[in-house]
């Protein structure tokens, strides 16, 4: 249809440099900044940008990282904490949607690789982006 949905799962280490509840004021600020940035992916340099011709606008954002929320309980000693996010775009001209520009490498310097799985009306593909690559071709 006219929806582009992005589901993202990332280890907190790639975004923050640690995978636990923040312990210091600097870590709490860094965690809040990461959450704010991911909850506003179209502010500043976009984290995700579809082909301009497709005329896609962000319609829904969900970001979950319970260990980063204020008052979070520490994770178990050997437990790794992830962040889950989903983004939904509504596209006026979905037939023009051919590629997605991913700005995560610029936003999060610790991220070195992004494994991408694409499912579309013409099939499925899998690709791995490595710095400095940022373009994902969409199967339409």
Provide a concise account of the structure shown:
The protein has 140 residues and is an alpha+beta fold.
User: Could you estimate the helical fraction of the residues in percent?
Assistant: 10-25%
CA-atom Rg in angstroms: 16 Å
Instruction: Determine the number of helices (DSSP H or I, runs of at least 4 residues).
Output: 3
What proportion of the residues form beta strands (DSSP E)?
Answer: 35-45%
* Content-based structural category: alpha+beta
Strand sequence of the main sheet, in spatial order? Answer: 1-4-3
Largest sheet: 3 strands, antiparallel
Strand segment tally: 8
Q: In whole angstroms, how far apart are the ends?
A: 11 Å
Query: In terms of per-residue confidence, which ranges show pLDDT below 50 for 5 or more consecutive residues?
Result: none
Shape category: elongated
The H/E string reads EHHEEEEHEEE
Q: Estimate the mean pLDDT confidence.
A: 90
